[in-house]
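Figure S7 source data.
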Amino acid sequence: MDSAATRESNYALGHSEQELKRLSHQGQVFAPFTRQLFEQAGIGQAMRILDVGSGAGDVAFLAAEIVGPSGEVVGVDREVAAVECAVARAQDQGISNVKFLEGDPAVLEFDRQFDAVVGRLVLMYYPDPVDAIRKLAQHVRRGGLIIFQEFDMENARSFPTAPTFDRAVGWMKQTLSATNTRIQLGLELYSVFLAAGLPGPKLRMDALIGGGSEFPCEILAAAIQSLLPMMEKLHIATSAEVEVSTLAKRMHDEVIAGKGVVLSPALIGAWCRRV
Ligand SMILES: C[S@@+](CC[C@H](N)C(=O)[O-])C[C@H]1O[C@@H](n2cnc3c(N)ncnc32)[C@H](O)[C@@H]1O
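Tokens for the predicted S-adenosylmethionine complex:
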């Protein structure tokens, strides 16, 4: 059974206030990539969109801007704290063409179909992404769009090696893998779509790269902070080793000293139309 306790223990990032802030910071940084993906795939004015795993609301807000006042976005997240955060942000920003629901959209029923189902960094947390996408596709009308954007975490690295950055990436990958997260789902999306009975999707790939102090190391440090309780529980690293309060600065200092560059995980976008 997928009890609340099991789900909580499997979703290693949690939903603390700090994590929800990190998600919205990450959302701002990745927004151009997600916007380009949506526009390339064919999201447009007046569409009705389902956002799977809406978190702090960033993907839903972006989609709401593209579909405009005559369109509508429904964001769904299984965690009440995420839904409350997204609702409050929508109110603060006066965004009226978006609403948020609590639950798993793969099992929820909706009164009518959507023009598109979208999701960013969410299928990687489903125990069976093929089954999930097969169910989620049922919410889309024929000819409608199915669009997901997921990580290939193996893309995250420094050059030349900045040991603190690479160690932090290693902790993150280990903790997520140990909690059954698919850290390279981006590369699996093509086969996942096919296995779910969908057409082979089109693909695009984006990543951040920055030299010296340009790269937002604080997003990685904040992810490590969110993962730390699980990291300690699984004996992957201790808070003394991680020293989270100085982690971002130490990563930046090393990259600057090495005149190096840092790359983020790749964000791989996949999309097709339901036949
Ligand atoms: C890493 S966050 C990404 C949030 C948002 N999509 C973004 O890119 O900013 C993943 C979110 O998916 C939610 N999630 C994971 N599995 C889910 C499921 N089976 N049903 C609904 N929400 C889920 C988590 O609760 C979390 O808020």
